[in-house]
Amino acid sequence: MRIHYVEDNATDAALLTTMVGKEGDIDLSISQRIEDFEASQEQGRTDFVLLDVCRPDAVSIEDDIRRIRAFTDAPIVFVTGGGSDQFRLEAFASGAEAVIDKDDLNPNLLRQLILNSTYRHRVMSEFPEGTLSSREMKSSIEALSGPFAYVEMSLQTLLETMEDAGRHNTADYVRHLLETVRTIRTYSQDDFSKTSRTPIHELLLDTAKIVSQTARRRGVDLVMETETTWFSQIGSTPLASLGIQHLISGLLRACQKGDRISVRSERDEFGIALNIFVSRDVIASKDILFNLIDAGPSLGLDSKASIQLGLTVLGVTREQTDVHVHKGNLFIRILI
Asked: Is 72 exposed, middle or buried (0-12, 13-18, 19+ CB in 10 A)?
């Protein structure tokens, strides 16, 4: 991944250089001006652009984007020292993928930013120029609210019917479908042009209240431990909560009665580390975690769907995870 950072402040440039220095898959280049950035393009294609807002050569948001688009179609993210919501909206409307505060930048957030921005940029690039504006894209997403509401209402009615009839296994299956649809709707309508500071302690406590019901139904011993701290993420706080809920729920659904799962959060150098222990090796490796089609038969479709949805909503990449199995136990570490 080749990232180019246009930044005239030597201190800020050095901070980012140090930050990504240990990330072997990130190649960072820095220029003080856009014209220097353009001249450096002979060295190879740029995959991602970070653009400081307050530079001597900066004229306007539109001008910055126009000048960069003259020589690269890579996703552009503005870096600010505390930009307003109005600036973020203007940048987004002008063609930027996101706006991020310098104080929030860290390797984990940068990976999530790259993942979301690159995907959105690729989707937008599939349409001929001028055929789809950001406003039209927003309208097309909002147009799905009706179908989503219909599916949710139908599943809610079916869930209540199954519960009244005492068909608990079917009710659990329908409940999972309903939660999946609601999360996909939230994900499709969330604002990925901004970052949010999320209290991991509150998030995990709320998650525990929800997934503990699944644990009790399945006879799984679930333990969740956390400390009071915050982390920054792309998108909204509710989105992070849903991501963790589905990730843990997917692992629970792969367990059997008498199994044990523990989830513990701890501070990491650049954010939060989620340490997950499962007393059953339901996932054999990192490759399987990111390609659940190859997972063993103990991982059902409901488990695969929840785990994959959780990772997607959290914006977690392979580089942010570590998976290993020891004596039949599964250990997963995720940096968010």
From this structure: middle
